[in-house]
Amino acid sequence: MERKGVVTFKGNPLTLVGPQIHIGDKAPDFSVLSNALEPVSLKNYEGKIKVISVTPSLDTPVCDAQARRFNKEAAGLSPDVAVLNISMDLPFAAARFCASAGIDRVATLSDHRDASFGNAFGVLIKELRLLARAVFILDRQNVVRHIEIVPEVAHEPTYEKAIEALKKV
User: Fold this and answer.
1) Cut 0.70: pTM above it
2) Which of 17, 27, 58, 63 is the catalytic position?
3) Residue 98 bears catalytic tag
4) N or C: less crowded end of the chain, CB within 10 Å?
């Protein structure tokens, strides 16, 4: 399934691969890699509320800012909330980024192997094989409670809306 015109990069339209996820949907499962090269899926966060921050690459200023902002927000959240950053970055690069940026409250996860998350959540950019910038909030039962797919990949998400939605879960 392909969706055109949902996102742009520097004004150029791109194609997203995968289904359109809606609020109220049961989140699809996926398999990504931790920085230790261990497989990770939704089961790893069973019973927790999940904030999934999706970035194209942590090695860009906007993705860096997004990861730092969610790391800062995570410091004030309950231990029942898992904050995940999923990108196509290699686990080694994500680990280096976390070490240099002081990211210690966000689990950085890599979708580079199979694009499992990108395909399942409909945020894989066909032309770039990167993930579109997005934020998903899932409740304890993995029901989607908030979605923001940022229309321009080079822009940051609306953090305030995500945090407000999180407070309602």
Assistant:
1) yes
2) 63
3) no
4) N
